[in-house]
Design brief:
It contains four helices and three strands, in the order αβααββα. It is α+β, with helices and mostly antiparallel strands. Helix 2 crosses helix 3.
Length: 75
């Protein structure tokens, strides 16, 4: 296994919801719409089942890319 893969840190949906103080349903909705950080779904394929995991590096990158300097930028 490459060194980079061994050092990867994964967050569950519950971990990310706690980090961002949002509901699990918000993350599920974002995944459905193709919004938010990239994710991996391990286990059963389909709309139900399987564990959703987020690579912490992708989460940090998404957070950095979505920072704003003012409320005007959000419009």
């Amino acid at each position: 296994m490459p060194k980079a893969d061994r050092e990867r840190v994964w967050l569950t949906s519950k971990d990310l919801a706690a980090r961002w103080h949002c509901a699990l349903g918000t993350l599920a909705n974002w995944r459905y719409r193709g919004y938010g950080p990239r994710f991996s779904k391990n286990g059963r394929v389909g709309s139900h089942g399987g564990q959703v995991l987020y690579d912490l590096a992708d989460v940090a990158r998404w957070e950095r890319d979505h920072m704003m300097r003012s409320t005007v930028e959000a419009a």
